[in-house]
Amino acid sequence: MRYHIVLNASEEDFIRHREEMQGFVEQNLQGIEEGETVFIQYNDKNQENLKEQSVTSSARILQTDYYEPQAIERGLNQILKEDDICLFSGNCEGAELAVRCGARQGGSSMQNVLGVFRENHQLYGTRMVYSNHLAGKFLLKHGPFCLSIAKGGLQSHKKSGSVKMLPPVNVASQKFLYPRGEREFQQREQKNGIDQSRFLVIGGRGLGNKDAVRNLEDCAWKIGADFGVSRPVAMNAWAPMEQMVGVSGNMCHPDLCITAGVSGAAAFYAGIEKSKCIVAVNIDEHAAIMKRADIIVVDDYKAIMNELAQLMKTRK
Amino acid sequence: MRILGCFKVVPDLEQVMEQDWKKIENNKIDVSFIKTIWNCFDESALEMMLKLSDLSEGFNVLTKLDALTIGDEVCNQYLKTLYALKFDEAVRIEPLYDVSFMPLKVAELITAYVQKKASYQAIVMGNQNAVAANGKTPILVAHKLGWRCITQVIDMEPIDETHIKVRYEQQNGSVTEMVELPCVFSIGNAPNSYLRVPTLKDRMKLGKRPIITVKEEELEIRNIEETEELVELYYVNNQRDAVEIKGNGPEEKARILFDDFLKERLEKL
Question: If pLDDT is split at 50, 70 and 90, which confidence band does B194 have?
């Protein structure tokens, strides 16, 4: 049994995903033979010193025209053997590739994998289920074992020593599998991701409307915090999706997190669980977040946040 | 153009009391007493289908919408709501047993139904459900049908009978593409996609149409061995020992919060 790593070297968050992957490997795959790191590449980003980013002592490039999951999956299936473990990044693209590769070869696949281990000669994976309320241990029955790791895991900066580059795989010239229509890509405006924020204020459904969300964001800015929102806020289009915190958004680990009007659904809480200190402000003392915070304030969030902003202005 | 929307009815898991999450027996948790809701991503999928249908008239595209779920009679009230929202056929596949953690079987059932009907150009569903959250069903269905699958879809517009203009999220941005059908569309985090509420008049007029029930045996699917098996379910305690700030009014509480808890932390940031 060997493990391989698949990383998208052409994406903005490549280094962070690489470090999360290194952390996952160190925690879970000691004693399993190293395979190779496959770098998906379709533009010029991160080309310098790519070898240094390999998690294993051998690596290769999977070259393609642009990000097309079906073509990438076909390229990976030239590399994967039945008994292999293949790890993918913890984003949506990684999760999709894991499922596709597993489906193609009849192997096991799993997304949001917290851990993987061998027990009695069998391979198991763990992930959250029931909207993040419970954890499940799954027997992985058939290889190749295609696993997308959970977002926001422990990062490691450790580098492999010397890395051997293997012959690249090129899927760009392959006949496209399905008719390809007119296509336009629009890059999202790049801001520092809130998943790397050290001080975060998060607004929830309790804010009630778009104006209130704007006001809380202004307040966050005044106290020097980044701003995020829970899923209901983003789904109501009161804030952009990029600001969403939780399992289907950003997984954050700030030193200080203040939530305002957030009920604390488990799928949201997973997005701030690794915070060093959580302050929850909610008018409802029975909200789920109130048992999962370090400091709670049962009161109207507007008054509390406005007063905080004032205090920070005068006493800083 | 005929489109099938697949959805799941799930328990409202946020209503489960903390202590009830610890009552795990035989790797199952009893949520039978909890009220049910639309699975949130499927809800977005159904609303997106309705918006597509609304727009289709302007493009001279005749669009028929069908809905399919796999589950017991609890699902019937949801199917009736979809009739009231002018879905053409509302279908429930009655499984032999709970298929919550069986994505291969779910995909096989959906595929068998689609192949039996042989009339769909597109299948739309949410990217995962609240209970099992495996994120596999749309991709597996597409794989079995030999169709393309596009994930993280956030918007759809009609073009003509064989094309849909789709916007999907990818790589820190979004792609807008004219997609040739057939295709499976997996819906991600789409803003403004809560399912509309039918009028009472439409509920009375349309909501009483009979649900089409298909027993699993009628689909004659082969025996499938799932590639993963849930062997243990366990509770993870993530509660913290909260300190409550008390005071006379929000201003005093904010002062205590700042002076006693935040000031030192903020200086270190």
Answer: very high
Across B24-39, average pLDDT: 93
Q: Which among B178, B258, B265 is the nearest to A308, CB-wise? A: B258
Cβ contact (<8 Å) for A129 and B24? no
- Is B264 an 8 Å CB contact of chain A? no
d(CA A25, CA A28): 5
The closest alpha carbon to A165, from A51, A76, A77, belongs to A51
**pLDDT per residue over A210-225, tens digit each?**
999 999 999 999 999 9
* Closest Cβ–Cβ partner in A186, A266, A297 for B245: A297
Strands B36-38 and A295-298: unpaired
- Cross-chain Cβ contact A266/B16 below 8 Å: no
User: A106 and chain B: CB distance < 8 Å anywhere?
Assistant: yes
Would you list the DSSP string of B84-113? HTT-SEEEEEE-SS--TT-HHHHHHHHHHH
Q: Which residues contact B103 (CB under 8 A, 6 or more apart)?
A: B132, B134, B136, B137, B140, B226
- Residue B91 in contact with partner chain A when CB distance is under 8 A: no
Q: How many CB atoms lie within 10 A of CB A30?
A: 7
Provide the pLDDT for residue A61: 94
Q: Would the pTM of this model clear 0.90, i.e. be above it?
A: yes
What pLDDT, on the 0 to 100 scale, is given for residue B131? Answer: 95
> Residue A239 is encoded by which pair of tokens?
């804030």
Are A138 and B228 in contact (CB < 8 Å)?
yes
Residue B91 has pLDDT above 90, yes or no: yes
Closest alpha carbon within chain B to A277:
B265
Tokens of B11: 């328990």
Q: How far is CA B268 from CA A50, A225, A239, B6, B258, in A?
A: 35, 14, 29, 50, 14
For residue A312, the model assigns a pLDDT of 86
Q: How remote is the C-alpha of B40 from its chain's centroid? A: 5
On whether the CB atoms of residues A25 and A88 are closer than 8 A, the answer is no
Task: Flag whether residue A99 sits within 8 Å of chain B, measured between CB atoms.
Answer: yes
Query: Any CB–CB contact under 8 A between A253 and chain B?
Result: no
pLDDT at A299: 96
Check: CB of residue B168 under 8 Å from CB of residue A144.
no
pLDDT of residue A177: 66
Task: Report strand pairing: A134-140 vs B212-215.
Answer: unpaired
Q: Would you say residue A178 has pLDDT above 80?
A: no
- Band of residue A183 on the pLDDT scale cut at 50, 70, 90: confident
B:138-197 residues touching chain A, CB 8 A cutoff: 139-140, 143, 148, 151-152, 163, 169-180, 188-194
ipTM of this predicted structure: 0.94
Q: What is the pLDDT of residue A158?
A: 83
- Of B190, B228, B254, which is closest to A139 when you measure between CB atoms? B228
Distance from CA of A92 to the nearest CA of B (A): 8
